[in-house]
Amino acid sequence: MGPFYKMSLRTMNPGxxxxxxxxxxxxxxxxxxxAYRGQWLILYFYPKxxxxxxxxxxxxxxxxxxxxxxxxxxxxxxxxxxLASHEKFKAKQQFQFELISDTDESICKLFxxxxxxxxxGLQMRGxxxxxxxxDPEGVIKQVWxxxxxxxxxxxxxxxxxxx
Length: 163
What we know:
The protein is an alpha+beta fold and 163 residues long. The protein is built from 6 helices and 9 strands. The protein has helices at residues 3-8, 52-63, 65-70, 83-93, 106-110, 152-162; strands at 22-25, 29-32, 40-45, 73-79, 98-101, 114-119, 122-127, 130-134, 140-144. Strands 2-1-5-4-3-8-9 form a 7-stranded mixed beta sheet. A two-stranded antiparallel ribbon has the order 6-7. A hairpin with a 5-residue loop joins strand 8 and strand 9 (140-144). The radius of gyration is 15 Å and the shape is globular.
């Protein structure tokens, strides 16, 4: 097994504290996860900017943005796309939240969202659509993997409201 497979054996689960990790995001944001202690953090991983499912998911998070904000939650979309791609996608869709660029896959590997996927009969590595709800102390409250876009954002919001 190569190093990719060894890293993917590690999975972030509910009850675990996420490590501080540096990241670059749209709007010139250079930060780390520790900077968001005291707030709920929603990290949603998606495969690719400007694709139908990813656009729909982002739009739904955006539609409910004010509700999440009122519950002291910060939303970040994360993919392997470049910051330039993210900036275009965010501007076109008018997202009110930032998109984290993870071109080196370090955050994706940390959260174990890089999986072998089948597309048109070919096996390829890609992001498995996943969402992590992290509490104000930096502990994972809930994990959604293999996310189906329809109804997902409302589900995340309802879990947050119940917390």
